[in-house]
């Protein structure tokens, strides 16, 4: 499994996906090859997929750094995120540098249907989190 086989599969689905979503995949070459997956109609929240020997990692950036959070709301926002972490299906929160992200990981042996499902759930969760955290954001 690699980003190119994932891209080929998702791009070929068109209107035939299990999730009802249409995917647009663009490989990004670099030190670590990454697949940028955009769900049509939700272009503002791309998902970045990388494949290692052990896992398929899917990451979506939620918002920028702490400067996008109301100054007196950081602790309360972090508390809310921690409380959401367990009941949120297939996803968890983290930070990459100063950026807040939501991510999910799959086995390297996951099926294409599993990957498609993870991407759909991750994107839905990202939209829900942004809505739920809006009171804390500027």
Q: Topology, please?
A:
Blueprint: H1 3-13, E1 23-28, E2 34-39, E3 47-51, E4 55-63, H2 74-85, E5 92-96, E6 99-107, H3 112-132
Antiparallel strand pairs: 1-2, 2-3, 3-4, 4-6, 5-6
Can you describe this structure?
By secondary structure, the chain is an alpha+beta fold. The mean pLDDT is about 95. The protein has helices spanning about 5-15, 75-85, 110-130, and strands spanning about 25-30, 35-40, 45-50, 55-65, 90-95, 100-105.
Q: In the CATH hierarchy, what is the architecture at level 2?
A: 2-Layer Sandwich
Helix content: 25-40%
Largest beta sheet: strand ordering: 1-2-3-4-6-5
Biggest pleated-sheet summary: 6 strands, antiparallel
Radius of gyration, whole Å: 15 Å
Strand percentage, roughly? 25-35%
Q: Would you tell me the overall average pLDDT? A: 96
Key phrases:
single chain, 138 residues, Yope Regulator, Chain: A, globular
Short description:
With 138 residues, the chain is an alpha+beta fold. It has one domain: 2-Layer Sandwich (Yope Regulator, Chain: A).
